Amino acid sequence: MNNLGKRIIVYYSKFNIGGAERSLSRMMNALCREGHTVVLLTKYGGGSCESMLDSGIKHISLAPDNDFICKHGISSVFARCRTLARQAMTCVKLYLKRESFDLLILGSQGASPTLPTAVFDPKLTVKCIRNDLLHCNGREHGIRNIKKYKDIIDYYLCVSLTAKESLCTVVPEVAEKSLVYYNFLDIDDMKNKISTANNPFESDGKVHIVTVCRVSDVSKGVFRMLNVCERLLKSGYPIEWYLVGDGDDYSKLWDEVVKRKMTDSFIMVGKIDNPFGYYANADLVAVLSYYEGLCGVVNEAKVSGAAVIATEFSGIHEQIDHGINGWIVDNSEEAIYDGMAYLLDHRDILSNLKNTIYPSEIIDDKSKLDKLYKLAGWI
User: Fold this and answer.
1) Nearest one of 136, 309, 321, 131 to 211, comparing CA atoms
2) What is the pTM of this model?
3) How would you class 231 by CB atoms within 10 Å of its CB: exposed for 0-12, middle for 13-18, buried for 19 or more?
4) What's the CATH number for 188-359?
5) pLDDT tens profile 252-288
């Protein structure tokens, strides 16, 4: 069967910048470039990641955005009613068109399939499982939805083996429909960003440590990063730690950095479009999350040839072979400090970790497309 010219719709809540959104945009772009019709359907428009989509991808939002609740003094009750009315009207218009789709991709594990399946009646419906459901924050909502809608979903695309194992543990009845499906990377785009990025560091004799993440303590552990940085400085290590990203805890973390008088050593860069100059020129990239699915920052850092230290989280052993292409430590502040101090004391080991050794099955986007086509019966 010819795999060209299929109609694919992707459903997501709001397409903001994050690891899930970046990998999903790369997947949609790859499908669009293969000649398929790709549509992104979101509950709310205005997401900051929408600009990453190829121009050939159509975007439909059920409401302009979900921020007007706090704007112009509109009451939350009235704003919610207005949002629901706009969503209902858009759904009616879409339903009357009765466009058919070959594939529906639910981009998050908590997404409900009822609206897009009712409106578009796809031939195949798949759901992405992006986290370790035994440990991630907010897992109860995702697990409830998986159990509630398990008969509607044809397959679950788990971004790591750990994510798959956790899904099969909490909802064993979907085990036969679950498979490991790694995120899209778009290596060519990453390499282009590396080639066009500038070195952000001065040749000042300092060890430059980089963390790229959403500034959220509940998942990324940003405050314990600051604690570790402070301990390393007090131990005499000549480090500068750069935190690249934005998020809910940015202001609170900045206040703490100022309070500890660490603005010259723990440098909060904020959100930037191209972090690859930081990856490629760092002495060490620190990925110290409490939990992940399959960490996109590790992917980007290793394509850049960076040395990576990471905590024990979902999928990390599929990405990092300890002591070969990275360093893995227990998921605690004490273990992070000990691991980083060890690497700073053994610069030869740290230097050897700066390589592009990485599993081919994670890098090869073409094989991921083929896997999806076979799943859908297109080849």
Assistant:
1) 309
2) 0.87
3) middle
4) 3.40.50.2000
5) 999 999 999 999 999 999 999 899 999 999 999 999 9
